[in-house]
Amino acid sequence: MVLMIGATLLGTQAWLKGEEVALSPTILQDPVKTVSDFPSPVQGKPLRVAGEYYSNKMETMLFHPGTDYAQAEGAVIRVKHEGRVIYAGPDPFLGIKVEVDCGGDWSVIYGGLKNLRVKEGEWVEVDQVIGQIGYYPDIFGDIEQTHLHFEVWQGDLVQVPER
Ligand SMILES: [Zn+2]
Protein backbone atom coordinates (compact mmCIF):
# COMPACT_ATOMS: atom_id res chain seq x y z
CA MET A 1 0.00 0.00 0.00
CA VAL A 2 2.77 2.42 0.94
CA LEU A 3 4.61 1.57 -2.23
CA MET A 4 1.57 2.24 -4.37
CA ILE A 5 1.05 5.69 -2.88
CA GLY A 6 4.73 6.46 -3.39
CA ALA A 7 4.52 5.43 -7.01
CA THR A 8 1.47 7.63 -7.59
CA LEU A 9 3.16 10.67 -6.08
CA LEU A 10 6.23 10.13 -8.18
CA GLY A 11 4.10 9.91 -11.28
CA THR A 12 2.36 13.19 -10.46
CA GLN A 13 5.67 14.97 -9.90
CA ALA A 14 7.03 13.75 -13.22
CA TRP A 15 3.93 14.96 -15.03
CA LEU A 16 4.20 18.43 -13.43
CA LYS A 17 7.89 18.65 -14.28
CA GLY A 18 7.16 17.67 -17.85
CA GLU A 19 4.60 20.44 -18.15
CA GLU A 20 7.01 23.06 -16.78
CA VAL A 21 9.71 22.07 -19.26
CA ALA A 22 7.29 22.23 -22.15
CA LEU A 23 6.08 25.71 -21.24
CA SER A 24 9.23 27.70 -20.53
CA PRO A 25 12.36 27.66 -22.74
CA THR A 26 10.83 27.30 -26.22
CA ILE A 27 9.57 30.89 -26.07
CA LEU A 28 13.11 32.26 -25.64
CA GLN A 29 14.75 30.29 -28.45
CA ASP A 30 15.07 31.75 -31.94
CA PRO A 31 13.46 29.60 -34.61
CA VAL A 32 15.98 27.82 -36.84
CA LYS A 33 16.78 30.02 -39.84
CA THR A 34 16.98 28.87 -43.44
CA VAL A 35 18.10 30.62 -46.61
CA SER A 36 14.50 31.73 -47.18
CA ASP A 37 14.88 34.05 -44.17
CA PHE A 38 17.38 36.08 -46.23
CA PRO A 39 15.64 36.97 -49.51
CA SER A 40 17.18 39.29 -52.05
CA PRO A 41 15.91 42.85 -51.78
CA VAL A 42 15.49 42.95 -55.55
CA GLN A 43 13.93 40.45 -57.94
CA GLY A 44 14.29 39.49 -61.56
CA LYS A 45 16.35 37.13 -63.68
CA PRO A 46 19.92 37.19 -62.35
CA LEU A 47 22.73 38.39 -64.59
CA ARG A 48 24.89 35.78 -62.90
CA VAL A 49 24.63 33.23 -60.11
CA ALA A 50 27.23 31.75 -57.75
CA GLY A 51 30.00 29.74 -59.35
CA GLU A 52 33.40 29.89 -61.02
CA TYR A 53 34.15 32.37 -63.80
CA TYR A 54 37.10 33.16 -65.97
CA SER A 55 38.00 36.77 -65.35
CA ASN A 56 39.46 38.48 -68.39
CA LYS A 57 40.69 41.33 -66.22
CA MET A 58 42.43 39.09 -63.67
CA GLU A 59 43.28 36.40 -66.28
CA THR A 60 42.33 33.62 -63.91
CA MET A 61 39.38 31.62 -62.63
CA LEU A 62 37.54 33.29 -59.76
CA PHE A 63 34.77 32.03 -57.56
CA HIS A 64 31.78 34.36 -57.65
CA PRO A 65 30.01 33.76 -54.33
CA GLY A 66 26.81 35.66 -54.99
CA THR A 67 23.94 36.43 -57.31
CA ASP A 68 23.94 39.57 -59.48
CA TYR A 69 20.69 41.37 -60.24
CA ALA A 70 20.58 44.14 -62.83
CA GLN A 71 19.55 47.41 -61.22
CA ALA A 72 19.53 51.00 -62.36
CA GLU A 73 22.24 53.17 -60.85
CA GLY A 74 20.76 54.95 -57.85
CA ALA A 75 18.18 52.24 -57.05
CA VAL A 76 17.55 52.19 -53.29
CA ILE A 77 18.41 48.93 -51.53
CA ARG A 78 16.40 47.88 -48.46
CA VAL A 79 17.44 44.78 -46.50
CA LYS A 80 14.84 42.05 -45.98
CA HIS A 81 16.25 40.78 -42.68
CA GLU A 82 17.60 42.22 -39.47
CA GLY A 83 21.14 42.06 -38.16
CA ARG A 84 24.30 43.88 -37.17
CA VAL A 85 26.40 45.69 -39.77
CA ILE A 86 29.94 44.31 -39.43
CA TYR A 87 31.45 46.01 -42.49
CA ALA A 88 30.45 49.03 -44.54
CA GLY A 89 32.98 50.39 -47.03
CA PRO A 90 35.19 49.65 -50.01
CA ASP A 91 36.05 46.12 -51.10
CA PRO A 92 38.59 45.19 -53.81
CA PHE A 93 36.15 42.75 -55.45
CA LEU A 94 32.74 44.22 -54.77
CA GLY A 95 33.10 47.99 -54.92
CA ILE A 96 31.31 49.49 -51.93
CA LYS A 97 29.90 46.70 -49.81
CA VAL A 98 27.85 46.13 -46.67
CA GLU A 99 28.12 42.94 -44.62
CA VAL A 100 25.44 42.10 -42.06
CA ASP A 101 25.80 39.51 -39.29
CA CYS A 102 22.31 38.04 -38.95
CA GLY A 103 23.07 35.79 -35.98
CA GLY A 104 23.03 31.99 -35.83
CA ASP A 105 26.08 31.82 -38.15
CA TRP A 106 24.22 33.57 -41.00
CA SER A 107 25.56 36.61 -42.82
CA VAL A 108 24.54 38.58 -45.89
CA ILE A 109 26.76 40.70 -48.15
CA TYR A 110 25.64 43.46 -50.52
CA GLY A 111 28.10 44.68 -53.17
CA GLY A 112 28.07 47.32 -55.87
CA LEU A 113 26.61 50.05 -53.68
CA LYS A 114 27.15 53.78 -53.18
CA ASN A 115 25.81 56.42 -50.79
CA LEU A 116 25.80 54.05 -47.81
CA ARG A 117 23.23 54.85 -45.12
CA VAL A 118 24.60 52.48 -42.49
CA LYS A 119 27.78 52.27 -40.44
CA GLU A 120 29.69 49.43 -38.84
CA GLY A 121 28.13 48.35 -35.55
CA GLU A 122 24.68 49.59 -36.51
CA TRP A 123 21.62 47.33 -36.13
CA VAL A 124 19.44 47.13 -39.23
CA GLU A 125 15.75 46.25 -39.36
CA VAL A 126 13.66 44.73 -42.14
CA ASP A 127 13.12 47.27 -44.96
CA GLN A 128 15.85 49.59 -43.72
CA VAL A 129 17.74 51.41 -46.48
CA ILE A 130 21.46 50.53 -46.56
CA GLY A 131 22.44 52.46 -49.69
CA GLN A 132 21.97 52.84 -53.44
CA ILE A 133 23.24 50.98 -56.46
CA GLY A 134 26.51 52.40 -57.76
CA TYR A 135 28.82 51.55 -60.59
CA TYR A 136 31.91 49.49 -59.99
CA PRO A 137 34.30 47.76 -62.37
CA ASP A 138 33.30 44.10 -62.18
CA ILE A 139 36.31 41.79 -62.02
CA PHE A 140 34.50 38.45 -62.14
CA GLY A 141 33.50 38.77 -65.75
CA ASP A 142 32.70 41.66 -67.96
CA ILE A 143 29.33 42.86 -66.75
CA GLU A 144 29.06 46.55 -67.56
CA GLN A 145 25.47 46.86 -66.35
CA THR A 146 25.07 48.28 -62.82
CA HIS A 147 23.82 45.55 -60.50
CA LEU A 148 23.34 44.41 -56.95
CA HIS A 149 25.77 41.73 -55.89
CA PHE A 150 24.03 39.66 -53.19
CA GLU A 151 25.58 36.90 -51.07
CA VAL A 152 24.13 34.72 -48.32
CA TRP A 153 26.47 32.69 -46.12
CA GLN A 154 25.93 30.14 -43.40
CA GLY A 155 29.28 29.77 -41.70
CA ASP A 156 31.79 29.10 -44.49
CA LEU A 157 29.17 27.88 -46.96
CA VAL A 158 27.67 30.03 -49.71
CA GLN A 159 23.90 29.61 -49.82
CA VAL A 160 21.83 30.01 -52.97
CA PRO A 161 19.06 32.52 -52.30
CA GLU A 162 15.52 31.63 -53.30
CA ARG A 163 13.91 33.63 -56.07
ZN1 LIG B 1 28.62 39.73 -58.35
UniProtKB/TrEMBL annotation:
<dbReference type="InterPro" id="IPR050570">
    <property type="entry name" value="Cell_wall_metabolism_enzyme"/>
</dbReference>
<feature type="domain" description="M23ase beta-sheet core">
    <location>
        <begin position="63"/>
        <end position="155"/>
    </location>
</feature>
<dbReference type="Pfam" id="PF01551">
    <property type="entry name" value="Peptidase_M23"/>
</dbReference>
<dbReference type="InterPro" id="IPR011055">
    <property type="entry name" value="Dup_hybrid_motif"/>
</dbReference>
<keyword id="KW-0732">Signal</keyword>
<dbReference type="InterPro" id="IPR016047">
    <property type="entry name" value="M23ase_b-sheet_dom"/>
</dbReference>
<protein>
    <submittedName>
        <fullName>Metalloendopeptidase-like membrane protein</fullName>
    </submittedName>
</protein>
<dbReference type="GO" id="GO:0004222">
    <property type="term" value="F:metalloendopeptidase activity"/>
</dbReference>
